[in-house]
Amino acid sequence: MKYLALLICFIIAIILTPFVKKIAIRIGAVDQPNQRKIHAKIMPRLGGLAIFISFMIGFIIFNPDSPYFWPILIGAILVTATGILDDLYELSAKVKFFVQFVAATIVVLGGAQITFINLPFGETLHFGYLSIPITIIWIVGVTNAINLIDGLDGLAAGVSSIALITISGLAISLGDGFVAFVGFMLLGSTLGFLLYNFHPAKIFMGDTGALFLGYMIGVLSILGFKNATLFSLIVPITILGVPLLDTFFAIVRRFVHKKPLYSPDKLHLHHCLLKLGFGHKQTVILIYSMSALFSLAAIIFTKSTMWGSTITLFALILLIEIVVEITGLISDNYRPLLKLLDRKK
User: Peptide bond preceding 200: is omega within 30 degrees of 0, i.e. cis?
Assistant: First the structure.
């Protein structure tokens, strides 16, 4: 049934996306080219609506049984509605953050919380009351990480698909049918849209899709973590390594240059790779490969012994270092921070 749900959502997304494209153009939900954007022509940007609708149809048809059904549904509707309004009228960052906070709170109050993490040598750290703010921060953080990486044709959809494959696969291996079911429905919807979004894109997902995908991936990673004792906090973090690292670097950049956290720039990972001379499609595929490596590391981490997990963690640190060095992030973006630290010494 899980694979049937994936197939149905995939087909529905393929059918819906051209209609959503026409609607976006008709109502003026288009992305205008500017010096920060990669594209050189006006593009419809409401494509996430096709992902959302196809997923919702699958959700209604298969009706996966879970106490989290309604909290997830309400939160998804809130963030998607916010994305639609932003694609039409460009809402302020404060409004979007507020709605994300509300949507995350609804899910958390519905019982989806990061209540503990597994420490080395069999120890467990319970968060207690801190589980609520930690979970909210995680969901909002992942939501914005997917939104920030949405800068090239097919990038956010592809990275999200890789994350969803990993989360769903791990959920199956750990017996979590609900997370696997929802993950496959979301994967099918995203892949159907990706056929129109891969370079050269015919439509963008916009904030409608990026916020919805980010929210859902954040929630699913928590549910997998919550229901499986073999999960540790490092697993969902590793699966989402590329967008989370890109977001972390963006926060550091804006702190160094004393800019608001939500201010845009052209120093994200995909921008840096383009500056190094990689083509549009090459850059997207390279980031796909990085995401796949992080996902593979997460799978190995769940199956490894203590020593195997430690080796995997060191390999991840090495991979992060290579990514930072290759893209020139330290030399271009963090020199002011290093100078600031030297002055304080």
Answer: yes
